[in-house]
Amino acid sequence: MGSDERRELGRYGERVAANYLALRGWRVLERNWRCRFGEIDLVAQPEPGSVVFVEVKTRSGDICGAGEEAVTPAKLARLRRLAGIWLEERGGARPAARIDVIAVNTGGGRGRSLRHYENVGWGAGE
């Protein structure tokens, strides 16, 4: 798969994830928020006073493993840093915050799926 195909697959997964969150009643505040240290796929608000930073991993099959397996401790550390910058830029009262992962699989002969892992890092318990 070429880089353009991977980029389009990633965009597709982010759209699916954003639609899924919207159907759950969440507000999507940001898509593909960037700063010089990296990018956050989605920033969403499930309820007033809270914010969730969502890493979306999309796969077209199972050959490379499940999407959630790609979220390593190093990736979580970078997401925590990015989330801190996002919150700092907005100032004011600091909302309850956490990091979630949404894994989207487009099929690959086994059917489509979406798995949502809540509070995978940097939640209230960390």
CATH topology: Trna Endonuclease, Chain: A, domain 1
Q: Radius of gyration in whole Å, from Cα? A: 14 Å
The proportion of residues in beta strands is 35-45%
Multimeric status of the protein: single chain
Enumerate the strands of the largest sheet in spatial order, edge to edge or round the barrel. Answer: 1-2-3-4-5
- Overall mean pLDDT stands at 85
Please report the distance between the alpha carbons of the first and last residues: 37 Å
Shape type: globular
Q: So what's the CATH class?
A: Alpha Beta
Order of helix and strand elements from N to C terminus: HEEEHEE
**Largest sheet properties:** 5 strands, mixed
Q: What's the structural domain tally?
A: 1
Q: Mind telling me which CATH architecture this is? A: 3-Layer(aba) Sandwich
Provide the low-confidence segments as ranges.
Answer: none
Report the total helices: 2
What is the helix content? Answer: 25-40%
**Structural class estimated from helices and strands:** alpha+beta
- Report the strand count: 5
